[in-house]
Design a protein that fits this description.
The chain is mainly beta. It contains no helices and 11 strands. Strand 4 and strand 5 (46-51) form a beta hairpin. The model has no long low-confidence stretch (mean pLDDT 96).
Length: 124
């Protein structure tokens, strides 16, 4: 069975940094596209970043471009720098199994497996 376990969330001041981690089991490390999504208070879930199974191709939402970095080895990470209060949300790790090696999906419906979520709170 596929399991995604997230960690690294917490409370930081505006301008600070956090690094989220997602440990995956029951899924091939180089066969699944991985994504990070978030859902803020009163908002719909939105994509933050995605990475292809190869690890070589990435996507970032305009709102986080230049501040966040997604990477992977046997786990997937989201390095978040220059955090803003509007980044406050529950962040979810997601996986899409057997995705074409050099591509990634950006639609939440294309992801088959989801982590439990980790809270990120940015204070002003």
């Amino acid at each position: 069975q596929v399991q995604l376990v997230e960690s690294g969330g917490g409370l930081v001041q505006a301008g600070g940094s956090l690094r989220l981690s997602c440990a995956a089991s029951g899924i091939g490390t180089r066969s699944a596209a991985m994504g990070w999504f978030r859902q803020g208070p009163g908002k719909e879930r939105e994509i933050v970043a995605a990475v292809s199974p190869s690890g070589s191709n990435t996507y970032y939402a305009d709102s986080v471009k230049g501040r966040f970095t997604i990477s992977r080895d046997n786990a997937v990470y989201l390095q978040m720098n220059s955090l803003k209060p509007e980044d406050t949300a529950v962040y979810y790790c997601a996986a899409s199994a057997r995705w074409p090696y050099y591509t990634y999906p950006t639609e939440s419906g294309k992801y088959n497996y989801w982590g439990q979520g980790t809270q990120v709170t940015v204070s002003s």
